[in-house]
Each structure stands twice: as structure tokens, then as C-alpha cells.
Amino acid sequence: METEQFFREYWEKKPLHLRRSDHSTASYYQSLFQLSDLQSLCSQGLQYYRDINLVRCINGKKKVLNKEGQVKSSVLSKHLVQNKVTIQFHQPQRFKDELWRIQEKLECFFGALVGSNVYITPQESQGLPAHYDDVEVFILQLEGQKHWRLYSPTVPLAAEYSVESEEKIGSPTHDIILKAGDLLYFPRGTIHQANTPAGVDHSTHLTLSTYQRMSWGDLLLDVFPSLLCDNSRTDVSLREGMHRRLLLSNNEGLDTSRRLAAHLRSLADDLDTGMQKVRSTHMKRDFIMNRLPPYSQQQLLTPSGNIPALEDTVCLRFKDHMVITVEPSQERTDEATELVVFVLHSLKNQRENHMMGESGDEDEEQDISRGLQFPLSHLQALQQLQQAEQLTVAQLQLPTQEAKLSLVLALWKPELCMNTSVFEHTQTSQLKDQILERR
């Protein structure tokens, strides 16, 4: 299926089941994670709750059967066979390189965080009750078979997780047996439940999830404070005091609603005509601080070339791992707050903490969260670098040679910018040598 067809016909609209009959796909899926991987993974100090949950659906309710402390492989095997529990393995991309590679590419593709869980369920058992999620879901069947039942959403494109009772969900819209190598997609809000059929030793499937809190409403919540703040700088009516005792009133009244509506219409008009710029900050920061680092560690180790000179050609190295934000300066002074530019990147992010809600070293995290800071006058030059394949330092739209070199050096030090001139010179020399050898 072509990407355009998927987004046109299925994304956020309806489920999609892709059947794969070729052995190579099934073998590749199984290589991502399988039951036998648990023994070696348990030797790495896995903990209940943090890394693994043991769950079972009993009478329509989820029962958690976790122990305390470190997970032992023998105990997992016993629970799987005797108690028919589902083993839920959190964020396996922390341990499995191929999942790191896949999810890092998907995060670049979607521009959103991509998490994963592995579920291992024995035959004639179900791990979770019927529920819906606040994420777009891709199911990859890795081992065995799984019986899925999907139901019409009670809350389309839901913004939160919720369990739904059997009485409310009605009959399934889709009744599917997933086999090894198959893929199933369904939008957030889709009610679903799954069990391993009789005669199947166990089922292992991988859930890839994305687009949590990535709606237009979420973007409005992010950009609206800066829009209002920017507009207040130039529109004195927004700085006028509201009516006396308004906060003590139980009913703000029609006059207040009309006044607020007028301000909102004015903001909307300024947006529509381009007089106001949309500035996403918190969503960009959350994404870049919590996403996976680049998969290619060899690329990270590749030298960035010599210190760039004015005539050298440069380019950004990890464009999909960088964002540019315009925010109020975080420096406290007695002067009016000024806007500055931040370049945020994920090169120092820790794979081991991905989607775990954990922070690393506090100083390093603060350094990452603050990013590289530049004056607002550098924004156009930074956007040049972001949009161009490569350009000379001299071409940067900054007023002085010193400013151009200072900007490029600041990006070159943390490996965000590469001096390509030395590599071009080397390649040209090698080409000349090859031509001379042929002669």
C-alpha cells in the first residue's frame, strides 16, 4: 500500500489489516522480539512495574499480578503457563537495536514520539479488557496468532485512555485473526480487545503507538499563550483592566463574553493575514527532549571537519533531530523581556530512558532543555541552514563576518554542523588520482 493511500483512506478514519503470507516478513517480525528473548533480558536487571507487568483480564477487569523487585525468567515462565498471565514488556527499543532503528525512523517520519510495548499471551487467555487508547496503534504480530475484536468508538479520536464495559460496546465491527507477519492499524478511540485462541501455544505481538496529544487542540493550547502575549505588546485594549469585582462574580455575563470574543476574533484575523506568527514551544521541547537519539552511532562519531572558515561550505547534520523555537529569554534582568532563538536537539538523549518518564543527569538535562541560545537577529540565518542542503558561511544573512562565524562555530562544537569543504576537497583529490591512474 502506498503511503498517500494509507493517510487518505485509513489514518484517523478506520482500521486496516494487512495480511502477509511471505515467510521473510514473518521471520523479520519474529527477529524483533520473541518469547525466548526474555531469559537474556532478565539478566539485565529488569524490574516489575518499570519494565514488566503481569496482567490478566478476569470478568472484564484487568488484574495486575506483579511481584516486587527484580524479574526472574523462571518466575515469568511459571506465571505464563500456570496462571495464564500476559507479559507486558515496556519500551523494548531500550534493549533491541532493530526496534531502536525502526522507532527512530518513525519519530522522524511522524514528527512525534513513538513508543512500543510487547505482549506475550498464552493460549485461551486475555491480558486486557475492552478499552480504547489516546494513540494511533500499529500491531505487528511476531509469534503465534491473536484474535482481535474491534468496535466503533464511543469517543472518536479519544484524548485519553478508558475501559469500556461489554454492555456499551455492542457487536464488533472487525473480527480478525492476526498471524505471524500480519499488521493491524486502528485509530485512537477504537475500542478493542484481544485473546490468544485455543491450540496456539502463545502469541507475541508488538504495539507501536504514536500521536499522543498531537491534535490541533493541543497545538492551540501550546501556541495561544505566546500569541496573546505578542498581541498584548501592540494592542493596548488587551492591557486594559477588566471590570471591578469580575473575579468575585459567579456569572461573568454577556458583556464579558462579547469582549473576549472580540479579542479572539482580532487574534484570528491577525493570524489569517500573517500579522501574527505561530510559535510552538512546549510541544517542540517535549518532543525533542524525549525522542530517541540518532540510531547511527557511527555517524555521531564521524568528525565534523575543520573549524569552518568564511569561505567554507557547511550543512546541518541532524535536521530531523533539531528544532528552532522563539521564546522569551530565560535570563532575569530589570529590562523588558526580549525574545531569543533556541536550537534544541536530541543528540544527547539517552536511549535507555526513552518513553520511561525518567530523567538523566540534572545538569545535562538542564543543558538539553535550554538548548543553544541566539539573538532573535540570528533566526533568518538559522532558517537558511535548516532549509538549504549546504551553503557557504559567507552566504548567511547576518550583518558581520564575525556574527556568521560565531553562529557556525556554536553549531559546529556540539556536532550539529559539518564543514563539508574538506570532504569535497578530499573526494575531488581522490577522483583526480583515479583519472591519472587510468591514464
β-strand amount: 15-25%
Number of helices: 14
Helix content: 25-40%
- Low-confidence segments: 424-436
Largest sheet: 8 strands, antiparallel
The coarse overall form would be globular
**Whole-number mean pLDDT:** 91
If strands are numbered along the chain, what order do they take across the biggest sheet? 1-11-7-13-5-4-2-3
CA radius of gyration: 27 Å
Distance between the termini: 50 Å
Structural class, by secondary structure, is alpha+beta
How would you briefly describe this protein structure?
The chain is built from 14 helices and 19 strands. The protein is an alpha+beta fold and 439 residues long.
Strands, helices and their partners?
Layout lengths: L2 H7 L6 E3 L4 H10 L4 H6 L9 E7 L2 E4 L8 H10 L3 E5 L6 H14 L3 E9 L8 E2 L3 E8 L1 E7 L10 E2 L2 H4 L4 E6 L3 E4 L4 E5 L6 E9 L5 H19 L18 H20 L9 H9 L6 H5 L11 E4 L5 E7 L10 E7 L16 H9 L1 E4 L3 H9 L3 E2 L8 H12 L4 E3 L1 H18 L1
Antiparallel strand pairs: 1-11, 2-3, 2-4, 4-5, 5-13, 6-9, 7-11, 7-13, 8-10, 8-12, 14-18, 14-19, 15-16, 16-17
